[in-house]
From TrEMBL:
GO biological process: methylation
Domain annotation Succinylglutamate desuccinylase/Aspartoacylase catalytic: ranges: 298-485
UniProt name for this protein: Methyltransferase domain-containing protein
Keywords: Hydrolase, Metal-binding, Methyltransferase, Transferase, Zinc
PANTHER family tied to this protein: 2-METHOXY-6-POLYPRENYL-1,4-BENZOQUINOL METHYLASE, MITOCHONDRIAL, METHYLTRANSFERASE
GO molecular function, one term: methyltransferase activity
Cofactor(s) of this protein: Zn(2+)
Organism: Blautia ammoniilytica
Residue ranges annotated for the Methyltransferase domain, each copy included: 626-738
């Protein structure tokens, strides 16, 4: 360590507490949201869990705290032990269960111990100016960035006043302004003499910045833009007064690396193209059919394999078709598709017989270089394919004796970031269930994850068959995962399912080599103690009874007549709802919208729309009494609740978002009406049966993960003869980000693209978005045994007569239902 580096480190160790206090002010003030908005708008358009972010010179951990709190993963480095310890304390204090989203390293910013092309984003603040060799630092930061990755450097000419008299006068003026406003002086609260002595020894104090930075980064083959007004958007008033003479700038540098052809074995493929052929592995012992697709733009590499079990045909055919269907023009990165791994057994139509004779390849990873044949194949796949991949997708189905429910495994025994990304990859799959694996090796995807490669295994089809619909579904799932990873362009597919976690999976093997008679089918639900099947001998004598240990769902089972001793018989597990975070995401979204939503509902209450809405409601009430007990479900800011309370009705409004309920209470108080408001889930009502005369809802059903359950609850709490009014629309079919048809003053134009993208993300996770409405609603309500039901498709034309701030371009429908 040079004397200068030692002096810099020792100085910042003394600044640990004071600097942390400055960061805490930012966390508790307006700066936190300002910084978040700025950073998120600059980040690459990829799922936040898959972004790799490096914070260099993290100090007390401001960036890791705000970014990990939003679900990002951050690697944070600092040269100063004291700063790292304080950063860890702050992460523990502010992040709770998200603290494992941050990894800390003591490291020199000028000599990083990371591999080339590792990070999507490198961020740093107030660091470059006090580095002895900033050129070397910039070279390192660009080196560890992925092609297309972004460096965001926030800095200023902090000590230019040591070399420029005009800057000295401006600096002195800052000190006067701070004293005049009776604020803390951020310079005088430090050992300024010691800091100035360091500043005189580092090169950037006397440079003209950011022009110097722009020149250096351009020479490093980065595309550079500079924002000299960024301080205005993220600094507090106190910071602006302290640093008025040294405004902070942002340098945004995108790594421009030549995206060249890619070679794998004998195949070479150019950007925007694909190559088909055979890949020779294991010193020529194995030859596997593959396709390599090189995206038009730089990006990560995904390995997709099929046929690890030679009789699982849905996965194999899906890989064959994906090799032709994936559009290289829409890709950023590279996809390696191996269509059949156990090629020899597949071509001999051995299916499960090969596993009985040769062993189960998916129990042998990472394999052995000098082992048996399948162990050598596993070893070759690991060394020559997995080690080239950033992500891994393994395609399976039921073997020739297996019936299964469609589901997905994700790797659960790896570092926290790998497990989290694997889990989010699994959540993209349109299947009812997902299972977290709890082993490290054996199967291909588990071993890959143990090496830091996020991995999933998809299961569809079985019984030695395949059909076009199963293949279409598996291909759609693969494309959706690729989109999530930022590798494939295009809109997300609508889905039927959002996979629920299945835990405590039981793998039950047969004890005899005879006949098997299942009592249920794959995908069936059952209760603890239910008989799931019998093993009998050739005279029909019961040898074994398979009884469920717990409530659960059957994932797969033997469907052939025979079972093998110590071979698979049935596999099932318990459905868990604890990791279904859709409601949390929905609540967070509407929390962010609650303030503007309250303002709009307040304005709407005093607009012509209020009387139009009441006219429609009056028509639906018909001869009902003048004082009804009404439940307003998903009341939001209380628009319907207030309108109906003004008519003399007893109204209870419920909403899942606490901030909406606060707004509703405020609006009712302003309007001088008495309503009761409660935070409550529309799908699980905390009311007795038969207690309301009327249930009303507007623009809620489309946001519910389980709308059919909600309808059941609403009908349950209605009195006999009571009626439900549901005003909704097919919002799931529209692109929320397209606001071109809306007036300029409309709320959706005020929210910004980030919020509308978030809305679309949520919609794609809700099954109701893919339903044909209101036909689906009518069918669902009819199954609940309602007395009468009708639908009104003309409600929008009677309510939204003007294209104003309240205008709704999506045609609404009204469902009127009598119990």
């Amino acid at each position: 360590m040079t004397e200068l580096m030692k002096e810099i480190k020792d100085y910042w160790n003394t600044r640990t507490e004071g600097y942390s206090e400055v960061n805490e002010k930012e966390l508790l003030g307006t700066q936190k949201e300002a910084w978040l908005m700025l950073l998120k708008n600059k980040f690459p358009q990829k799922a936040r869990e898959s972004l790799r972010i490096l914070d260099i010179g993290t100090g007390p951990g401001f960036f890791p705290v705000i970014l990990a709190g939003e679900g990002y993963y951050v690697d944070a480095v600092d040269y100063t032990e004291g700063m790292l310890e304080k950063a860890k304390e702050n992460v523990e204090k502010y992040l709770g269960n998200k603290k494992d989203h941050v990894s800390f390293y003591r490291m020199d910013a000028q000599d990083l111990d990371f591999q080339d092309n590792t990070f999507d984003v490198v961020i740093t603040r107030n660091l470059t100016w006090n580095l002895p060799d900033p050129v070397k630092a910039y070279r390192e930061w660009i080196r560890v960035l992925c092609p297309g990755g972004q460096l965001l450097n926030f800095d200023a000419n902090w000590y230019g006043y040591l070399y420029d008299e005009e800057k000295r006068l401006a600096y002195d003026k800052d000190r006067e302004n701070v004293e005049k406003e009776n604020l803390d002086d951020h310079y005088l609260c430090t050992d300024i003499d010691r800091m100035e002595e360091i500043a005189r020894q580092v090169p950037l104090s006397g440079k003209q910045r950011p022009s110097w930075d722009e020149k250096v980064l351009t020479e490093l083959h980065a595309s550079v833009t500079v924002d000299t007004d960024v301080w205005n958007r993220v600094w507090s008033t106190e910071e602006k007064l302290n640093y008025g003479s040294t405004p902070m700038f942002m340098i945004q540098a995108v790594k421009q690396e030549l995206w060249e052809g890619y070679t794998l074995g004998d195949l070479t493929v150019q950007p925007g193209h694909r190559a088909h052929g055979f890949l020779t592995l294991g010193n020529g012992e194995f030859s596997l059919p593959i396709t390599v697709i090189r995206g038009k733009n730089p990006g990560k590499t995904v390995l997709i394999t099929a046929g690890i079990h030679p009789g699982e045909y849905v996965g194999i055919q899906s890989a064959v078709e994906l090799a032709e269907d994936l559009n290289a023009e829409k890709m950023s990165g590279t996809v390696i598709l191996v269509k059949v791994v156990c090629r020899e057994a597949f071509e001999a139509r051995k299916g499960s017989a090969d596993m009985a004779e040769s062993g189960n390849l998916n129990r042998l990873f990472p394999g052995k270089r000098e082992g048996k044949k399948l162990e050598r194949l596993a070893f070759a796949v690991v060394k020559e394919l997995q080690e080239k991949a950033d992500y891994y997708i393994d395609l399976h189905s039921g073997d020739d004796y297996e019936e299964l429910a469609s589901y997905v495994y994700y790797a659960g025994r790896a570092d926290a970031r790998t497990v989290e990304i694997s889990r989010h990859m699994a959540q993209q799959v349109d299947v009812p269930y997902m299972v977290q694996s709890d082993v490290v090796s054996g199967s291909a995807y588990n071993y890959a994850a143990s090496q830091g490669i996020p991995s999933v295994l998809l299961e569809r089809g079985g019984m030695g068959c395949w059909d076009a619909e199963e293949v279409r579904s598996m291909k759609r799932d693969v494309r959706t995962i690729l989109r999530y990873l930022g590798i494939y362009d295009g809109h997300k597919s609508y889905r039927k399912y959002y996979p629920l976690e299945v835990k405590n999976v039981q793998y039950q093997d047969a004890s005899y080599n005879v006949l098997w008679y299942p009592e249920k089918k794959a995908g069936d639900l059952f209760e603890s103690g239910d008989v799931l099947g019998y093993v009998r001998d050739y005279e029909g004598k019961e040898l074994e009874c398979c009884v469920a240990y717990s409530d659960g769902v059957i994932l797969y089972q033997t469907r052939s007549l025979q079972v093998l001793q110590d071979g698979p018989m049935i596999t099932y597990g318990q459905i868990s709802y604890e990791n279904d975070d859709r409601k949390e995401r929905i609540t967070n979204y509407w929390t962010k919208r609650s303030d503007s939503f309250l303002k709009q509902r307040r304005d709407e209450l005093h607009s012509p729309l209020a009387s139009r809405w009441m006219n429609e409601i009056h028509k639906c009430m018909q001869e009902k009494g003048s004082k009804l007990k009404i439940l307003d479900v998903g009341c939001g800011a209380g628009f319907f609740s207030v309108l109906l309370a003004k008519e003399g009705h007893m109204v209870t409004g419920i909403d899942l978002t606490p901030n909406m309920i606060e707004g509703a209470r405020s609006l009712a108080k302003e309007e001088g009406v008495n309503c009761t408001f409660q935070v409550m889930d529309a799908e699980t009502l905390n009311f007795e049966d038969n207690c309301f005369d009327m249930v009303i809802s507007r623009n809620l059903t489309w946001t519910l993960p389980n709308a059919s359950k909600a309808y059941g609850e609403w009908m349950r709490v209605l009195k006999k003869g009571g009626f439900m009014l549901n005003f909704d629309a097919n919002y799931g079919l529209e692109d929320s980000t397209d606001t071109s048809s809306l007036p300029k003053m409309h709320a959706h134009n005020m929210l910004g693209s980030d919020m509308m993208r978030e809305c679309d993300e949520i919609k794609h996770q809700l099954p109701i978005s893919s339903c044909s409405r209101p036909a689906w609603d009518l069918q669902t309500l009819e199954t609940l045994g309602v007395k009468r039901i009708y639908v009104d498709l003309g409600i929008s034309s009677r309510i939204y007569c003007e294209k104003d701030e309240f205008y709704n371009p999506t045609p609404m429908f009204l469902l009127w239902t009598e119990k």
